Amino acid sequence: MSTAEPVDDGAHEHPKHRVVRHVRYRMSRSEKFIAVALIVGVVVLALIPFVFIIVPAGHVGVLYRLLRHGTETQFVYREGLGIKWPFDRIYTYEVRTKTLNESVHALATDGLSVQVQISVLYRPVPDSAGRLHQEVGYEYVDRIVRPISLGAVRDIIGKSDPHDLYRINVEDLEGRILDKMRRSPAAYGLIVFERVVVRDLDLPPTLNDSINRKLTEEQNALAYQYLIEQAKDEAERKRIEAIGIQTFYAIVANALTPQLLTWRGIEATVELSRSNNSKIVVVGGGKDQLPLILGSDIARQPDLPAPAVVDPRSNPLPPFRDLPRLFPKPGSADAASGAASGVVSSTGSTGSDKTSTQAATPGVKKP
What we know:
The chain is an alpha+beta fold and about 375 residues long. Among the domains are: about 30-95, no CATH class; about 100-205, 2-Layer Sandwich (Tetrahydropterin Synthase, Chain A), CATH 3.30.479.30. The protein contains 9 helices and 8 strands. The protein has helices at about 30-50, 130-135, 140-160, 160-165, 170-180, 205-250, 260-275, 335-340, 355-360, and strands at about 50-55, 60-65, 70, 80-85, 90-95, 100-105, 115-125, 190-200. A hairpin with a 5-residue loop joins β6 (about 100-105) and β7. α3 (about 140-160) packs across α5. The longest helix has about 50 residues, at about 205-250. The termini are far apart. Its main location: membrane. It is found in: Membrane. One of its GO terms (biological process) is mitochondrion organization. Keywords: Membrane, Transmembrane, Transmembrane helix.
């Protein structure tokens, strides 16, 4: 069964009466979704640098709000990824420890020029980075750190004498400078000064030469003082030795009889004859005379009884620890006792010879 198709009668119409028809293209839903997604993606890609921020390691981010109160001082962005409005701005600050090397020209108390080279270790306070950005800015090293460092060094050097600086403890000088820097109100709560290192301290050459000469003379004076003390100790030693010799002779004086001397001479002659060395022996003129030692009266010596044994308790040695010193130190007990008894002392007080001898050799009896 055939279907009749409509016949276009336009071919039979007059050209002036022909109507032109335009057909519109309409997008499907999937095509509209794709187009919208593309537009949003382009916008997001364009806004990523203005919305998402990355804070590097060792840094903090300070937020500046364009449409509100400006710099945010209550919080900071930590390391990592952060989000903000596109019209706001982030300023990053490094909070790691930094080093500032400076050469400072300062004047000491007497006006002499001193050149000091220092290294300052510092870092910003992370939680106060907003205040630091608002009150000081990125130039905080030139505006705060360097002026405070120079002022602290000049203040400490200006209160010191060059001679003291020559012998000062470096750690003590560094501690004083660091304490002065930390007490500065300009950096309080914003900058942390961790350490100050004094790398070099240059004094004028003339001052160095004079100080070196002075120190050399002081060492020479100490050496002479040591020699004097050594001589005093040697005098004390000889004094004690003399007391011992005097005590020895006081004990053996009564035992040195002619018979004892004769016996000692015989012993010496026997020992001399036993010697292997070549020798010449000179003897006396009589048969009872001995060589070398004894004279011609040896045979006519009287017979004396043997000496009695000396009792050590009758001739005791003096207490050496209790002896007054020959050179007592001023203010000591020996100096006071020596002055009271008239013994010669280092302070110049003198007494009689008899008193000095008795005080120097207590407990010793004269033979």
